[in-house]
């Protein structure tokens, strides 16, 4: 999937086309001087994309030890290209240049990656992207464990089942129009009726109840440009299907691209500053952190470019 994704992204490497598309986007958002802004940003947009692609392709050919650093810088560049579509003045202040997240000081004894946490800062790229690309505010001081974040990646479900006997996702079917179906069986996991679960998701996420059948409710996203990143539903790119976490506390409002940003930030910090622990993990393969992290990085290499392409196709 990854090679084909980069091929399709080549269409976004033309200043002639991108300038027109950015100008149209800025006009729709009522920016003054849409033409001038689009000229200023079309080269920056393409350079962000190319730089991100170079980091990802280099990661694919590099040892596991430095892949998190390359992937984190790669996702940061790709996200900045997306930002230019909706925020032509990025970066308008120096405060948005920081990463926007922090990882806690690591304890040397009995450190477990899955139990580690990451904290959202008030300013920086993360909050800026959440607000401008996904209209999510008030994430400051939120904490996320690596386990919770990894459970937002549907392709990781087999790793959780094999190593922890943790069946935390339930498959969600859809009709031929792409409406997602909630059933009584799914609702039982939440100790609700299917109608109550439908209302619960409608109230907290961007969905409408499209139709109701016996013991089944179909939901449709009410986003202007719906994508496969439909929180709280999780897209499994290998199976081309959706899953839902089967516990209320595991439902997240973070689009998956932001989940990847957080995971890769923490892994890149470990790779940079926790060298002893990192190499003991990679060379010793002594605990479950090893398969979790390596499997995740392989998924990230494929899935992040796919999400970026999908976002660009929806916006431009």
Comma- or semicolon-separated keywords:
three-stranded antiparallel β-sheet, single chain, 316 residues, 12 helices, globular, alpha+beta
Q: N-to-C SSE series?
A: HHHHEEHEHHEEHHEEEEHHH
Count of extended strands: 9
The major pleated sheet works out as: 3 strands, antiparallel
Look at the helices and sheets and give the structural class: alpha+beta
The gyration radius over C-alpha positions equals 20 Å
What is the count of distinct domains? 2
Which of globular, elongated, flat, extended, rod-shaped describes the shape?
A: globular
- Helix content percent band: 40-55%
Terminal-residue CA separation: 21 Å
Overall mean pLDDT score?
93
Low-pLDDT runs of 5+ residues are: none
- Count every helix, treating DSSP H or I runs of 4 or more residues as helices: 12
Residue fraction in strands = 5-15%
Which assembly state applies to the chains in this document? single chain
Spatial strand order of the main sheet: 1-2-3
Short description, anyone?
By secondary structure, the protein is an alpha+beta fold. Helix content is 52%, strand content 12%. The two termini are 21 Å apart.
Q: What layout of secondary structure does this protein have?
A:
Elements: H1 2-9, H2 15-28, H3 34-60, H4 67-86, E1 101-103, E2 117-120, H5 125-134, E3 143-145, H6 146-150, H7 157-164, E4 169-172, E5 180-183, H8 184-189, H9 194-204, E6 207-213, E7 216-221, E8 234-236, E9 241-245, H10 256-273, H11 275-284, H12 289-315
Antiparallel strand pairs: 1-2, 2-3, 4-9, 5-7, 6-7, 8-9
């Amino acid at each position: 999937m990854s090679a084909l994704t980069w091929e399709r992204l080549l269409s976004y490497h033309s200043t002639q086309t991108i300038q027109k598309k950015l100008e149209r986007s800025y006009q729709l958002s009522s920016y003054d001087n849409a033409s001038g802004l689009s000229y200023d940003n079309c080269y920056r947009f393409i350079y962000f994309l190319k730089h991100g692609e170079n980091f990802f392709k280099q990661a694919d050919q590099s040892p596991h030890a430095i892949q998190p650093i390359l992937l984190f810088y790669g996702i940061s560049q790709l996200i900045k290209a997306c930002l230019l579509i909706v925020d032509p003045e990025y970066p308008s202040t120096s405060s948005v240049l920081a990463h926007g997240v922090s990882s806690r000081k690591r304890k040397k004894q009995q450190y477990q990656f899955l139990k580690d946490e990451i904290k959202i800062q008030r300013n920086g790229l993360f909050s800026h992207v959440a607000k401008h690309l996904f209209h999510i505010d008030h994430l400051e001081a939120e904490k996320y464990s690596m386990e919770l974040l990894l459970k937002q990646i549907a392709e990781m479900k087999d790793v959780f089942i094999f190593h922890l006997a943790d069946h935390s996702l339930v498959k969600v079917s859809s009709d031929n129009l792409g409406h997602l179906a909630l059933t009584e069986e799914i609702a039982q996991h939440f100790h609700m009726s299917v109608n109550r679960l439908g209302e619960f998701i409608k109230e907290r996420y961007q969905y409408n109840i499209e139709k109701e059948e016996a013991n089944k409710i179909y939901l449709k996203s009410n986003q202007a440009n719906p994508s496969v990143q439909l929180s709280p539903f999780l897209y499994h790119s290998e199976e081309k299907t959706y899953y839902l976490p089967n516990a209320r506390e595991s439902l997240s409002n973070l689009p998956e691209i932001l989940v990847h940003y957080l995971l890769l930030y923490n892994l890149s910090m470990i790779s940079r500053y926790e060298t002893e622990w990192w190499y003991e993990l990679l060379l010793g393969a002594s605990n479950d952190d090893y398969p979790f992290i390596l499997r995740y990085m392989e998924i990230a290499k494929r899935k992040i470019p796919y999400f970026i392409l999908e976002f660009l196709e929806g916006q431009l």
